[in-house]
Structure formats: structure tokens, C-alpha cells
Amino acid sequence: MTLASAAAVAIYYRQSRKPVAGSPLFSAIPDTSPVLDTITLSAPRNNTQPLPIAKPVFKETTVHSTSGSRGVTNNNPGNIRKSKDAWQGLAAKQTDLAFFVFTEPKWGVRALGHILLNYYRKYNLRTISAIIARWAPSVENPTIGYAAYVANSVGVSPSAVLDVPAKLGNIVYAIIRFENGFNPYSLDDVKQWVNLP
Question: 55, 60, 63, 101: least CB-packed within 10 angstroms?
């Protein structure tokens, strides 16, 4: 393998290996951070030995930023898409074309909590798998991995039947972390905000 073909393989590998939140190898790696850290190639000792293929070294990181995420910037950490709903706490000027913008994070968290309670009450969705399948359909999301991440964060199986109102704060907290790669809000604040009238 020539150095050029090894570099092409490395570039392809980097582009094809997108980090998945909740994956044991990755922990909230933003798209802008280098996933592939180093590639080392050594020259063959003679012309009969092929060049070894280097193994990529992945960074395991946790994002601790409190800015830069679209959901956090919009005070909409669940990334609720725009609709005809007139949510409490919506900003007068909706600056994002696709997602609601709220005046404070508590209103975005409240709206997310109300949506999930609606899934529970109206559609009888009582498992993390069912809730996430509706919240983040597989046509645009890694729904199975998303559900596994949220279930693991809540401490249950994705298919476990839950008392959703009792676990709502924990579910919303995990969704915020998955949607943004981090969660700048405390669990206590989230639990309080999901129950705002």
C-alpha cells in the first residue's frame, strides 16, 4: 500500500465513522473536532514486506461548553421544530428558520416535557423506545441508538414500561444531552421546568 493510498483510506475512514452519542467509543464529539488523531506508517524493511495499515486513534472527550449548540442558543434544548403551536415563552422574533426560539431555557424545557406527556397521555407511549421513535423518527435520526442512550441515562431498558410522569425530568435531561452533546442545566432545574404550568 502506498502512502497516498493509506492516506485515502484514512480520509475515507474518518468521513465514514461519524460519532454516535451514547456510543462507548465516543462521548459527544462535535462534528468540528478531529475524530482521527494520528496515523503512523513505517517503511518496509525490504521490498517484499507490505506497509502496515495503521490503526486510527480516537479521542474520547466530553464537551463542557455552554454555548455553540443550536438548541442551547435558541433556549430550545430539545430542538422542537416550528409548528402552529403557540408555546408559552416563545421569543417575539423567531430567528431560526426550522426550530422554535424561546426567551429562556425553562420555556423550551417545559415545552419538551409537555410534548412527552402528550405522547404518554394521548398515544399511550410508555417505553423509551416508543417515545424516542415518535420524538426522533428514524428518517432523520439514529433512533435505536438515541433510545438506548436515553434509556441507559434513565437507568432502564429501552423497552421497559415506565411511569412517564415520574421519570419525565430524567428523560428530558437525557434528551437534552443527546440533542446538544452536553447539558448545561442541572437535573433539579430540568425537573422543575418540565412541571411548569
Answer: 55
